[in-house]
Amino acid sequence: xxxxxxxxxxxxxxxxxxxxxxxxxxxxxxxxxxxxxxxxxxxxxxxxxxxxxxxxxxxxxxxxxxxxxxxxxxxxxxxxxxxxxxxxxxxxxxxxxxxxxxxxxxxxxxxxxxxxxxxxxxxxxxxxxxxxxxxxxxxxxxxxxxxxxxxxxxxxxxxxxxxxxxxxxxxxxxxxxxxxxxxxxxxxxxxxxxxxxxxxxxxxxxxxxxxxxxxxxxxxxxxxxxxxxxxxxxxxxxxxxxxxxxxxxxxxxxxxxxxxxxxxxxxxxxxxxxxxxxxxxxxxxxx
Length: 287
Known about the structure:
Number of strands: 8
Distance between the termini: 39 Å
Helix content: 40-55%
Strand content: 15-25%
């Protein structure tokens, strides 16, 4: 029997708190660890996800940063605005969050959708972003097959949130398909069973619509405008885009560093937290 993986076990011994802040009228859930006197770091999850994406990273980062993992706008237990969500909406919410926690500047690290939002924030609000990490980030292309897969898996999981449908959505993220990810499945199943979450997921999936996606995509102009020191982190088994696409993103960002983590899928921060933390902290601390 393989070792059971538990969100609570990952957090045992970690001095953290969970709570809600009012961000422009949106009740926003967070996981927080670290000393407020330290530089701020905000961790952004992917499409349809929630703050638990970073449970394995809070302890290591809290040693150096005032660390926040949030449920982004319309996600998890954060308020649902009730309209299709585009990148500008997420960026506005992120900047509002920085205002509420009193962070004039922060390191921003985003995975998938979170990376798309982080990159756009660095373009539109350069004075607010210190260092930037784009972790298997979205927003650089429109692959119809990938977009359809995300929509189908996500809508199946919220329309009928059985163990099997939610597990399929979680396993899609991971390189190792042999594990069951029971605790992650149970956690996400509870999120998806909230009243009204089918409509909320439709709003989240707006960026998979070809027309909406096109007007939100980032290209040479946007990536080239990023002035924050940037790490583009990719993986060997990312289900959304290959290593070449990650390298292409990095090539458009002035001075960006590019790293590939082996044997990981879309959640390297979870699948290989030790390697991720070493790379991530090395970069954020100026390495």
